[in-house]
Structure formats: structure tokens, C-alpha cells
Amino acid sequence: MKKIYLIIAIAFIALIGYIYFQSKRIDGLKNERDAYKSNNTTLLTQTKQYKTNDSLNAASVFELQLKLSDYEKYRSKDAKTIQSLQTTNRTLQSVITVQGQTHIPLNIPIKDSVINKSNVSQKPNVIYKDTVKTIKAYTDWYYIDGYIDKSFNGDIGFNEKLGITISLQYKRFLGFLWHTNKIKDKKCDVINFNPYGKITKIEYITITK
To answer: Full-prediction pTM beyond 0.85?
Structure first.
């Protein structure tokens, strides 16, 4: 009789183990299916551009999940650049790349200025004064400082400031009722605080093991 109970107990434990293993396997397949659906959505929608309440340019994109081997294959240049940041493959979790454009409409008055120049070809030690057209403009987001003497000589600089947020979208019970604790999608939003700047493309890639 004891042997029968022992056999039943062993069979019961084996059944529980089998059910647990199968449930973990099913969860893994569901996660792969959800990742596949999410990747398809991301690749189809790509980067969405919009404006904030204060008219700043912003854009958003959904998460793209890639295995490390796929990331190194399809984003080989980015992977090599990341390696130069002293980040190991084991600790790499996600990569966000942002592309943008800056377009500034200008209407800057040109002024006459006197500068000292040397006649290198004829008298290198002789300094004489010359009148040239100068351009100067300084703002919080760009500056232009130079003069025109057959061509423009000077400096042009831009200041950029980006804000990046990651938000979660949770699944709903039965697809339309209350939110659950399961994550449906991850979304990356980028805002350009430079009023002349525009976000043209975002990639938000999470490295899966």
C-alpha cells in the first residue's frame, strides 16, 4: 500500500513539474509573440512627429526588441560605436538614437568694420587697415560671428537640448477593461527644446537575452 502511495506521490510531483515547465514555456512563447507584434507595430508606425503645448517640436516611437546577435548584425556600426563607450554586451540594455534638423530663418544686417590685415605676398611685415562687411548674431540657440571678404570667414554654432522620456503602456483586462500589471508597449518620446530644431527619426531598441 505504501508503494502505491509513493508511486502516486511521485507521479503527482512529476505532473506538477510538467505543468510548471509547460506554463513557463507557454509564457515564453507568449512573450516572443508579443515582442513580434510590438516590433511589427514599431516598424510600421516608425517615428511620429508632434508639437507640445508650448509649440516645441517633439517625436515618439515604440520600442523595438532585438537579440544582441541581431543588433550586432543589423546595427553593426552602432554596435561598434557603443563598444567605444566602454559598455560591455552583458550590461547593455537599450539603445536610443535620435536624428534631427535645425532650420533657422535669418535676417541679419551686415555692418562695415575696420580690421587689420597683412600683405603676405608683397610686404609680410606691413599691416594695413581694410573695411569689410561683418555679421554678428547671438541668441540662446545659435550664434554667427564673422566677416565677408570674397568669402565668409568666421564661426557658426548651434546649441541643442533634448529631453527623452520612456513611458509604459499596460494591457487591459479582456482588452478593454481596467489596466493590468502586464506591459503592452514601451514608448520613447523626445522633445527638442531648441525652437528651431526638429526631430526627424528616433530608434528605441531594447536588447533581449
So the answer is: no
Length of the chain: 209
Whole-angstrom distance, CA of residue 168 vs CA of residue 188? 9
CA dist 136 and 146 (Å) reads 7
Residue 4 sits at φ, ψ, to 5 deg, of -65, -45
Pairing of strands 197-208, 64-67: parallel
DSSP label of 54: T
Query: Rounded to whole angstroms, how far apart are CA atoms 169 and 183?
Result: 6
Is the CB of residue 157 less than 8 Å from the CB of residue 143? yes
CA 22 to chain centre: 37
CA atoms of 13 and 17, how far apart (whole Å): 6
Cα 13 versus chain centre, distance: 49
Render each residue's pLDDT in the chain as its tens digit; 209 residues. Answer: 666 666 666 666 766 766 666 666 656 556 665 655 555 555 556 788 999 988 899 999 988 888 888 888 877 787 777 777 766 667 788 889 999 998 888 877 778 776 666 554 555 555 556 677 888 889 899 999 988 877 888 899 988 899 999 998 887 766 666 677 777 788 899 999 999 999 999 989 888 87
Query: Using alpha carbons only, how large is the chain's radius of gyration in Å?
Result: 30
Q: Helices (H) and strands (E) in the chain — how many of each?
A: 3, 11
